[in-house]
Amino acid sequence: MFGHVMEDLTPEEIAAASQLYAPLADRVRELVAATVLTEVPAPDVAKAIQLIEEATALLGTKAVEGSFGVRWTPDGKRRTWGNAIVGLRNPIAPPLDIRQRGDLTYADVVIGPQYEGPPTLVHGGIIAAMLDQVLGDAAVNAGVPGMTGTLRIRYNRGTPLGPIRVQSAVDRVEGVKTFVSGQVIVDDAVTVEAEGIFILPKAVRDLGDNPPPGILAPGD
Ligand SMILES: CCCCC/C=C\C/C=C\C/C=C\C/C=C\CCCC(=O)SCCNC(=O)CCNC(=O)[C@H](O)C(C)(C)COP(=O)(O)OP(=O)(O)OC[C@H]1O[C@@H](n2cnc3c(N)ncnc32)[C@H](O)[C@@H]1OP(=O)(O)O
């Protein structure tokens, strides 16, 4: 299926790739925050630009074309390393380390200054994106995954930059639709509430009872 790439990698090879690329994304994420906040003199900014250009050119000498897609192994393990919210290789991702405890799907994350909207508060669009992902993962974890069809968000109060929890749980399933709700929590108070409808797309439904292994499995 388009964007899904099968790779016959061993767990050791996947672990090695993770150890290689996670620190790269971490350093670039730090670079983004430093870029927002720096107050060094102009010559130092010029020098930083040059170093960044060199690093970008080096990384670009061999690269995937287009997007990373979803990579999976024959045993059904999936890697969503390019994902904008959870991608291990994606410095744009906060990143969310989404976990599961019972029926609850959640992520504890520290939101940095590069996600600011109103002064000192997390941008509402970033909050929506995180909720989209965490609600979607609740559907995946419950074995009833789907694409986001509808996402409703109610911002009750501002969410300060810093440590937050994003959490979700499946409310009910109606046919191909999974209804999920979730919240953003700061210091035990709910700042944002969300409700989503996740729909198993017709293209996947048409695969019948035997979709390719991994297509409906949780990613990491
Ligand atoms: C193509 C391969 C995709 C493979 C993925 C498969 C499953 C997902 C698996 C894993 C997902 C993993 C992680 C996901 C976690 C987070 C990721 C973040 C989520 C996103 O970032 S995701 C990007 C944003 N998202 C989109 O880009 C969606 C664009 N859109 C579409 O892809 C279609 O529009 C779709 C699929 C939504 C529906 O298409 P469709 O053809 O399957 O729908 P159809 O007409 O058959 O309706 C069937 C029933 O859903 C009702 N219905 C239809 N549309 C609705 C809507 N919008 N809201 C509420 N209900 C709706 C009908 O009323 C009917 O209801 P009823 O059965 O009661 O009559």
Q: What this model shows, in words?
A:
The protein is α+β, with helices and mostly antiparallel strands. The protein has a domain at 94-205: Thiol Ester Dehydrase, Chain A (Roll). It is 31% helix and 28% strand. It has four helices and nine strands. The strands form two sheets. A six-stranded antiparallel beta sheet has the order 4-5-7-8-9-6, covered by helices on one side. A three-stranded mixed beta sheet has the order 1-2-3, with no helix packed on it. A hairpin with a 2-residue loop joins strand 4 (99-101) and strand 5 (104-111). The longest helix has 27 residues, at 11-37. Ligand 3IX binds at residues 1, 132-133, 136-137, 140, 145-150, 175-177, 197, 199-204, 216. Residues 1, 132-133, 136-137, 140, 145-150, 175-177, 197, 199-204, 216 line the site of ligand 3IX. It catalyses: tetradecanoyl-CoA + H2O = tetradecanoate + CoA + H(+); hexadecanoyl-CoA + H2O = hexadecanoate + CoA + H(+); (9Z)-octadecenoyl-CoA + H2O = (9Z)-octadecenoate + CoA + H(+); octanoyl-CoA + H2O = octanoate + CoA + H(+). This is Acyl-coenzyme A thioesterase THEM4. GO terms for molecular function: hydrolase activity.
